[in-house]
């Protein structure tokens, strides 16, 4: 019964449509218009760049661009990258990098700013905008500046200061960090864990230690995070990529790799590591873990799961993707997660067998060379974890997890009811709403900001050219009234652009 219920909860929204299957939403004429828009954008950008270079050569204009190289030197920045950065991104930069002046709770204060020159340099007006926060990864609402968790952090500052200023292998190994490793390993069902001071570095500095050396094969999901991509590249292992969340393609790729063996020598692979994520950060989709575990067991491969967005957010008690699907954590060889989302802190962890973790303590760059996590940051994660598990003597953690699922599913359902193209799975706090057209990115961001909504827009080159989107991140600290207000403001967008594609077809 439990397994059936879990599968029902994980039914994909939008009737199982894939994010990249845009022909089910857009006509070919609309797709052509999007490509025409990119052509116009790049053509105008290139024309302005050429005109500027002519004016500079004539001495009528001074350059301030980063891709201007000294005479006789090649530019440090590529021409295409420089063109996109200075002629395209700079014009919509107000939709990114927005400074805040408060804790990133359900509502926060954004510092208003304005552009002062043709290079889009910003200046602050001195005014603060009170906005509904739909962009932070504050899933369980622990990014707050009051309460028992904050009091624990204050005490940690008094005892341990604000920074370790040393790697753990030298003078940065603190008692609170050891306690955090003990608690998190028990929480996810593993023997031991290694805590690293930066979330991105948890993947990028540990995967090379796990998969280093020739003869190792990494099979990675096509939409894995950049930290996994960088770690895989640094490992010197052979990397193959399977279609996103497609277990059939994974098995086909794995079977073929085993049959072919290593390139040139055709010797058997020394080890094969499958790497996936619990929740994919740009799609909001939940990994199909039972299918992947079955394939992993069948072909005797190792499985590495990145739970940056799923730990604390999925499962009845927040234990992540394994609890969500009812999978035994022992069936996943390496569980990675971060404290930067649901825990409201920084850093991350790798959990697994004790001898394996002991090996990583001495071989992972993040453990040996990087500065250790500071005491207050470790205490924030530890205290939040104790709230989640109920070790603080309350049921606050259970309530927050239930509220997060309720809020996420409510917001997703309301957008779907209005006909918007929304992807991801139920219980996922990440809810992408597709915009498709590149010109909608700055418009939607500015429009919603004027109405008190702070959102994240995501477009090329982070996503493919046709898959521009606005991504909403839901928190347990949001109220139903907050979310309904957001839905009402989003609905107003249809007065300018018919983004509710499905409603239009009814």
Summarize the structure in words:
The protein is an alpha/beta fold and 506 residues long. It folds into two domains: 169 residues, Aspartate Aminotransferase, domain 1 (Alpha-Beta Complex), CATH 3.90.1150.10; 242 residues, 3-Layer(aba) Sandwich (Aspartate Aminotransferase, domain 2), CATH 3.40.640.10. The chain contains 18 helices and 13 strands. A seven-stranded mixed sheet has the order 3-9-8-7-6-4-5, with helices on both faces. Strands 1-2-11 form a three-stranded mixed sheet. Strand 6, helix 10 and strand 7 form a beta-alpha-beta unit. Helix 2 crosses helix 3 and helix 14 packs across helix 15. The two termini are 36 Å apart. The N terminus is likely disordered.
- What is the mean pLDDT? 90
Q: Give the class-level CATH name of the largest domain.
A: Alpha Beta
| Biggest sheet character | 7 strands, mixed
User: Assembly type of the shown chains?
Assistant: single chain
Query: What's the CATH H-level superfamily name of the largest domain?
Result: Type I PLP-dependent aspartate aminotransferase-like (Major domain)
Structural class, by secondary structure, is alpha/beta
**Secondary structure tally: strands:** 13
Number of helical regions = 18
**CATH structural architecture of the largest domain:** 3-Layer(aba) Sandwich
Q: Radius of gyration from the CA trace?
A: 24 Å
When the domains are counted, the total is: 2
Global shape: globular
């Amino acid at each position: 019964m439990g397994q059936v219920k879990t599968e029902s909860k994980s039914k994909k929204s939008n009737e199982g449509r894939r994010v990249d299957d845009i022909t089910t939403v857009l006509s070919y004429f609309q797709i052509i218009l999007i490509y025409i828009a990119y052509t116009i954008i790049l053509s105008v950008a290139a024309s302005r760049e050429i005109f500027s270079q002519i004016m500079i050569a004539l001495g009528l204009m001074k350059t301030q661009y980063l891709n201007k190289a000294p005479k006789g030197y090649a530019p440090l920045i590529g021409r295409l990258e420089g063109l996109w950065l200075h002629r395209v991104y700079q014009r919509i930069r107000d939709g990114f990098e927005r400074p805040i002046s408060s804790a990133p709770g359900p509502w926060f204060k954004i510092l208003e700013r304005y552009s002062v020159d043709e290079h889009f340099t910003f200046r602050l007006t001195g005014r603060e905008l009170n906005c509904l926060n739909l962009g932070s990864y504050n899933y369980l609402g622990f990014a707050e500046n009051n309460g028992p968790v904050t009091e624990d952090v204050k005490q940690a500052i008094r005892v341990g200061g604000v920074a370790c200023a040393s790697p753990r292998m030298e003078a940065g190994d603190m008692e609170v960090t050891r306690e955090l490793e003990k608690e998190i390993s028990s929480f996810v069902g593993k023997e031991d864990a290694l805590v690293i001071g930066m979330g991105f570095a948890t993947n990028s500095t540990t995967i090379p230690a796990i998969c280093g050396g020739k003869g190792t094969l990494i099979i990675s999901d096509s939409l894995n995070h950049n930290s996994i991509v960088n770690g895989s590249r640094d490992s010197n292992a052979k990397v193959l990529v399977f279609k996103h969340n497609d277990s059939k393609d994974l098995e086909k790729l794995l079977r073929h790799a085993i049959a072919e063996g290593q390139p040139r020598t055709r010797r058997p692979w020394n080890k094969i590591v499958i790497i996936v994520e619990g929740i994919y950060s740009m799609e909001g989709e939940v990994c199909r873990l039972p299918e992947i575990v079955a394939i992993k067991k069948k072909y005797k491969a190792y499985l590495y799961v990145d739970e940056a967005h799923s730990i604390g957010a999925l499962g009845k008690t927040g234990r992540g993707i394994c609890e969500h699907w009812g999978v035994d954590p022992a069936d996943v060889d390496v569980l990675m997660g971060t404290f930067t989302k649901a825990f409201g802190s920084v850093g991350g962890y790798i959990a697994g067998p004790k001898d394996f973790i002991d090996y990583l303590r001495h071989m992972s760059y993040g453990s040996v060379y990087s500065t250790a996590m500071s005491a207050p940051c470790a205490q924030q994660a530890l205290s939040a974890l104790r709230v989640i598990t109920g070790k603080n003597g309350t049921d606050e953690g259970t309530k927050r997890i239930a509220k997060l699922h309720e809020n996420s599913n409510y917001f997703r359902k309301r957008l779907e009811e209005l006909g918007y193209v929304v992807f991801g799975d139920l219980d996922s706090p990440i809810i992408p709403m597709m915009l498709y057209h590149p010109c909608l990115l700055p418009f939607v961001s500015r429009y919603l900001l004027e109405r008190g909504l702070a959102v994240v827009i995501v477009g090329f080159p982070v996503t493919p050219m046709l898959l521009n989107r606005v991504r909403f991140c839901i928190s347990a600290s949001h109220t139903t009234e907050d979310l309904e207000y957001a839905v009402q403001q989003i609905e107003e967008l249809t007065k300018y652009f018919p983004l509710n594609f499905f409603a239009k077809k009814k």
